[in-house]
Amino acid sequence: MTAAISYLTVHAAFVLPPIVALGWLAWRRPAAWWNRRAFSGLAIILLLAFAYTTPWDNLLIAEGVWWYGDDAIVATVWYAPLEEYLFFILQPILTAFWLFQFLTVPDRSLWIPRSHRIVGWLAGLAIGVGGWLLLGSTSTLYLGAILLWAGPILAIQWAFGITALWAVRRTVLFAVAVPTLYLWLVDRVAIELGVWVISNEHTVGISLLGLPIEEALFFLVTNVFVVQGLVLYVWTLERLDGSIALPVGGRLKSDD
């Protein structure tokens, strides 16, 4: 199938413009987080996202879970196109720049009850185990791979700071929901235009807003990684140095 547009065009038309717009807004708005602490957290997220996603993504492409339309990509490294690696960088930046507009620091100390940490760890572990069990069927391979891949990261984040994340749950939800919905739209457009094709054989056949449920889940969990990681990073640094270096107009927050 020949793609109507290229993967680079998807980036240029749908991913880069909101990044530029959100970056400009954060730079102009005193209440936004646009400082060294926010950027150092984003740099760490980018390194981790690239390193953790690269082998997973390449293995699924090699398995035939998805592929790309004719003339849609420039070149490949391993099994993934160069544009895919670029997306590993652009998506976290997009989500982070959205979060920076209203990032708030959980209003609690770093001390979290051990029972809360255990619950967080077990919840992430259960997701990973569920994914591992789903790998045994061809139709649930993609779904299982996402859950198995997501489980360890969620277990680490929740074991470390599930109580703090719960304190700012509305902020986290809003920060995850908006870029996730937007990327669902972008993904659906790209599929419709033949930029990439999702295997029917390796998916369960359930759609959400016109997207395979696996694709929707992927963008959800990756945005959860980014938002939770940045919230926990800033919260930790602010508490360790004993100060709350809020931007002008920023504040501590608890959603309770």
Short key terms for the protein model shown above:
mainly alpha, two-stranded antiparallel ribbon, 256 residues, two-stranded antiparallel sheet
What does this structure look like?
This protein has 256 residues and is mainly alpha-helical. It has one domain (7-253). 66% of the residues lie in helices and 7% in strands. The protein contains 7 helices and 8 strands, in the order H-H-E-E-E-H-E-H-H-H-E-E-E-H-E. A two-stranded antiparallel ribbon has the order 1-5. The longest helix has 28 residues, at 36-63. The chain is globular and about 55 Å long. Residues 248-252 have low confidence and may be disordered.
Secondary-structure topology with pairs:
Layout: H1 7-28, H2 36-63, E1 66-68, E2 76-77, E3 80-81, H3 82-99, E4 105-106, H4 114-134, H5 141-167, H6 169-192, E5 196-198, E6 207-208, E7 211-212, H7 213-240, E8 252-253
Parallel strand pairs: 4-8
Antiparallel strand pairs: 1-5, 2-3, 6-7
Helix pairs in contact: 1-3, 2-3, 2-7, 3-6, 3-7, 4-5, 5-7, 6-7
Summed up, what is this model?
The protein is mainly α. The protein has one domain (7-253). 66% of the residues lie in helices and 7% in strands.
Radius of gyration: 19 Å
Structural class: mainly alpha
Q: Termini separation (Å)?
A: 51 Å
Q: Uncertain spans, ≥5 residues at pLDDT below 50?
A: 248-252
Order of helices and strands: HHEEEHEHHHEEEHE
Helix amount: 55-70%
Major sheet details: 2 strands, antiparallel
| SS field, number of helical segments | 7
How much strand content do the residues show?
5-15%
